[in-house]
Amino acid sequence: MKAELGDSRPESEGPPGPAGSGRAGVLLVEDQPELLRALSINLRARQYEVLTARTGREALAVAASHPPDAVILDLGLPDIDGTEVIVELRRWSKAPIIVLSGRSSPGDKIGALDVGADDYVTKPFAMAELLARLRAALRRDEGEANLGRPHQATIGRWLVNLTSHQVTRAAEPAPTVVPPTAPSPSPATASSPVAEPATGPAPATAPAPAAGPDPSPHPGSAGGGGLPAAAPPAAALSAAGLSAAGLSAAGLSAAGLSAAGPEETLRLTPTEWRILEILLQRPGQLVGSAQILTGVWGPGFSQRTNYLRFHMARLRRKLEDNPARPRHLLTEPGMGYRYQP
């Protein structure tokens, strides 16, 4: 069955695809060579990235290595039925699926829609209508993605703001500092009566100190002319279970136990930002290595996994508390990467 290819009405360009690619990727699954070629020509002419497959198993393999933004799928495939392809794709992908099939019975349409297809077009078909349905499906998918897209995320001790492109240290509750207290008198001392002075000659009194400068080595101590109090001695901090190093790590000073300087920020390179945006916009989802490479560097770099390993290692060193055992920027061996909130 042939599509109508003579529609000369201008079409809008394909909508943007993943971050960095600039174009939406469409997977065409069709076993008829002539129709597959006609669809490919029309989509590429409208600035879509096109992936093709002629069998169901090939379609699943292509989708796993290069996750598409949309799928146009024939049901009558030579190896497995198209509905099985829909079921397998829906296990991990939310990309809109448009069925393009010669089966026109209500049962076939209902069955495909019930297992996860988003639209159904029967052959023969008008190319302009199919393209309009594709644009509508991509608009719906993009709107839903934007509604649920996070604007910021926390990785370890860092808060990543995708709107302002800033990474700042996440706020932590200030530690409660308990000042040292004088030891309380023992019960025996507190309850005993005041002893009377002993009889006998009075003890010699010590001579009064000669007038001179204040012997205190701390000009800010009590009686020092109203100057600020000096930092607590190490013994007092130790008695309170604190240390100067511990206070410094908590952002406090030993003298006044006050907050430290301005908000701490972290610098990321443009490439690190692009990788991080792709991952953080899909929290908890597996993102294929080829998808990240294509989105950041372009279609010709989908096999340069060493680029991705290098930059992911840098991101972990900057953001994770323990880069050797990351909790948020995870590797799925042989498949890709995942941001785990």
Describe the protein in words.
The structure is a single chain. Among the domains are: 25-147, Rossmann fold, CATH 3.40.50.2300; 152-170 and 264-339, Arc Repressor Mutant, subunit A. 33% of the residues lie in helices and 14% in strands. The protein has 11 helices and 12 strands. Strand 7 (158-161) and strand 8 form a beta hairpin. Helix 2 (56-65) packs parallel to helix 3 and helix 9 (270-280) crosses helix 11 (305-319). The radius of gyration is 36 Å and the shape is elongated. 23% of the residues are buried. Residues 1-22, 187-233 and 246-261 have low confidence and may be disordered.
By DSSP, the count of extended strands is 12
- Specify the overall morphology: elongated
- CATH superfamily label of one domain: Response regulator
Q: Poorly predicted ranges (pLDDT <50, ≥5 residues)?
A: 1-22, 187-233, 246-261
Give the topology string: H per helix, E per strand: EHEHEHEHEHEEEHHHEHEHHEE
Note the total helix count.
Answer: 11
List the helices and strands and how they pair.
Layout: E1 25-29, H1 33-45, E2 49-53, H2 56-65, E3 70-73, H3 82-89, E4 97-101, H4 106-114, E5 119-122, H5 127-147, E6 152-155, E7 158-161, E8 166-169, H6 187-191, H7 234-239, H8 244-249, E9 265-266, H9 270-280, E10 286-288, H10 289-297, H11 305-319, E11 329-332, E12 336-339
Parallel strand pairs: 1-2, 1-3, 3-4, 4-5
Antiparallel strand pairs: 6-7, 7-8, 8-9, 10-12, 11-12
Helix pairs in contact: 2-3, 9-11
